[in-house]
């Protein structure tokens, strides 16, 4: 008996031992970033986007670039200098440094894109979640969407810019006027797919409020969808802003953007191609890097890709 006591040790009964889960700890966001940083292309694009964003936000603070300035055009030595060690991007027909002009324009384009995207996504997600959850509200908003969706955006945007006049906040208003409704419609469709699943029906039966249902039971499942939309929205806004500025109906003369620079320098496409292609290259780099980073992050945020 003494040998048995030495070999065995009696323990107390633990009623919760059967509930113990031996699986390793899972962190959703840790898994998201782990999956994201597996892509070398995404890392390269993230670095590119960070560098472009940093330069465009910081460099104009020190350049004192003024698109309305009237330089001494009689000094031909400062005009149409091709890229060199003194002027990295060269100079234009006024003798202005293209390096200063490009980053000043990039700052404006990125700022407009971030502001407009924040408004469109924030308003669109909020309205779309309520729209998809509330069956009574659905039929009214659907009729409004059907009317707005059949009106060409660029036509309305150009007409409004002529009515409101060129301006920073006028352009923000035009870019957000209808785009948020498209976001809301897409979110509405996704919410309707999840709304009537079994666990949501049970939760609703138990008296869970609509706000809690939307914020806790529905929207977290749409993280990858929302990030995908975000990755497309920023380049789309940049393209729309550039196109309107290219047409001359976006920003006033005292505010420059990449679209305005391309519009101004397109006349030198054949004689001084660097004036045209450098702003185009920066614009393309911004759009592509933001899109690839956002799309890769959207894929990484899908729990199905986690292991």
Please explain how this structure is put together.
The chain is mainly α and 307 residues long. The protein has one domain: MetI-like fold (Orthogonal Bundle), CATH 1.10.3720.10. 67% of the residues lie in helices and 0% in strands. It is built from 13 helices and no strands. Helix 2 crosses helix 13 and helix 11 packs antiparallel against helix 13 (273-300). The longest helix has 36 residues, at 98-133.
In CATH terms, the superfamily is: MetI-like
Topology order in helix (H) and strand (E) letters: HHHHHHHHHHHHH
What is the share of helical residues? 55-70%
Distance between the termini: 50 Å
What is the strand tally?
0
Task: Tag the structure with descriptive keywords.
307 residues, flat, 13 helices, mainly alpha
Provide a quick synopsis of the model.
The chain has 307 residues and is mainly alpha-helical. It has 13 helices and no strands.
Write the layout of secondary structure elements.
Layout: H1 2-7, H2 28-36, H3 40-63, H4 98-133, H5 135-149, H6 153-164, H7 168-176, H8 179-195, H9 198-205, H10 210-218, H11 223-247, H12 258-265, H13 273-300
Helix pairs in contact: 2-13, 3-4, 3-13, 4-5, 4-7, 4-8, 4-11, 4-12, 4-13, 6-7, 11-12, 11-13, 12-13
């Amino acid at each position: 008996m003494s040998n048995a006591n030495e070999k065995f040790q009696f323990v107390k009964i633990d009623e919760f031992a059967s509930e113990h889960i031996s699986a390793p700890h899972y962190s959703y966001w840790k898994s998201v970033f782990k999956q994201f940083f597996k892509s070398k292309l995404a890392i390269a694009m993230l670095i590119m986007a960070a560098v472009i964003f940093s330069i465009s936000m910081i460099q104009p603070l020190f350049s004192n670039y003024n698109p309305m300035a009237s330089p001494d055009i009689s000094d031909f030595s400062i005009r149409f200098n091709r890229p060199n060690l003194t002027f990295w991007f060269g100079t234009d027909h006024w003798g202005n440094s293209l390096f200063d002009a490009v980053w000043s324009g990039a700052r404006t384009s990125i700022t407009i894109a971030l502001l407009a995207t924040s408004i469109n996504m924030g308003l669109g997600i909020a309205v779309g979640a309520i729209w998809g959850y509330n069956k009574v509200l659905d039929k009214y908003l659907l009729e409004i969407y059907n009317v707005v969706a059949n009106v060409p955006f660029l036509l309305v945007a150009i007409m409004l810019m002529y009515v409101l006049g060129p301006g920073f906040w006028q352009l923000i208003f035009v870019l957000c006027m209808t785009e948020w409704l498209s976001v809301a419609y897409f979110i509405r469709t996704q919410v309707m797919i999840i709304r009537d699943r079994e666990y949501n029906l049970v939760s609703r039966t138990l008296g869970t409020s609509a706000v809690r249902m939307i914020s806790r039971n529905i929207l977290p499942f749409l993280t990858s969808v929302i990030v995908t939309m975000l990755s497309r929205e920023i380049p789309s806004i940049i393209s729309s802003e550039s196109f309107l500025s290219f047409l001359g109906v976006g920003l006033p003369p005292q505010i420059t953007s990449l679209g305005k620079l391309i519009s101004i320098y397109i006349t030198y496409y054949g004689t001084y191609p660097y004036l045209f292609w450098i702003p185009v290259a920066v614009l393309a780099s911004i759009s592509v890097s933001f899109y690839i980073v956002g799309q890769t992050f959207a894929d990484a945020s899908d729990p199905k890709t986690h292991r």
